[in-house]
Amino acid sequence: MKKHNSQAQTCALKKSYKKIITSLVFTLATIYSSPNHATIISDLLITEIMANPDAVTDAKGEWFEIYNPGNDIFNFNGITLSDNGSNSHVISSPTDLLINPGEYFVFGRNGNTSENGGYLADYVYSNFTLGNADDEIILTDTLGNTLLLEYTSGFVNAGKSTELLSTEMLISNYDLTSDFNYGNGDFGTPGSEGSYAFNQAFSPVPEPDSIWLILMGFFLLLARKRRTEQPETTESLLYS
Ligand SMILES: [Ca+2]
Ligand SMILES: [Ca+2]
Ligand SMILES: [Ca+2]
Question: Tens digit of pLDDT for each residue in 12-64?
């Protein structure tokens, strides 16, 4: 009888542990398979800038490109495009201006392919120019989140775009494009991959703090389970 009770308790305890471990694995799997947050403007990357076209005038041929490395579709409608000077333009369209995960979006000064040097603009802005010496590209949402690129001399070269060669938007990670031509002959890859292959999605890894919290919760649960199971075993042994 003693042996039976003891075996039954051990079996119940094992089942409880199995349940806890299953739920822990499920929780971790859920966290690891879902993004940390919905994609916001700061998650995007300014991947290419044509500030000084050579084939056509700056007024016709300036453009810049954005890549979405996030897990969600992002809508540019309502975002403000500005610099630290007087340039300011609220991106606005009667239809959504969507950038899908893993895709590029081109903002241009002129949308006419026979005038702009031969590239396709996904959106045409106004009251925004790209300086050939130094300037800023700042995109801000209504909550104040920003995507910012500030460049100085040496960043721009006539007839060549400047492309990002890393997932970190540091000025030192940009270089002039020299391997790809488009349209009327300037160097660049507006709307497509250039010298660097960007990955489509963020690695949805939780912060280390989250992992510690989950593990702590798991061990607390385990300790609590152990405490509640122990007296029953003693009692059943006493009265059997
Ligand atoms: Ca310019
Ligand atoms: Ca400007
Ligand atoms: Ca490109």
Answer: 656 766 676 656 555 555 555 555 578 999 999 999 999 999 999 999 999 99
**CA of 147 relative to ligand 2 center, distance in Å:** 15
Question: How confident is the model at residue 37, as a pLDDT?
Answer: 73
Q: How many Cα atoms within 13 Å fall on the side-chain side of residue 150?
A: 4
Distance from residue 235's CA to the centre of ligand 1 (Å): 84
Closest ligand to the CA of 83 = 2
C-alpha distance from residue 154 to each of 54, 58, 171, 207 (Å): 16, 18, 11, 37
User: Distance, CA 63 to ligand 2 centroid (Å)?
Assistant: 12
pTM assigned to the model: 0.72
DSSP class of 15? H
pLDDT tens digits for 2-12?
A: 555 566 666 56
* Distance of alpha carbon 108 from alpha carbon 124, whole angstroms: 5
DSSP 173: G
Q: What share of the chain in percent tops pLDDT 90?
A: 67
Instruction: Give the number of whichever ligand sits closest to the CA of residue 128.
Output: 2
CATH of 41-187, one of 2.60.40.2310, 3.40.190.120, 2.60.40.1260, 3.90.550.10: 2.60.40.1260
How would you classify the pairing of strands 174-176 and 162-164?
antiparallel
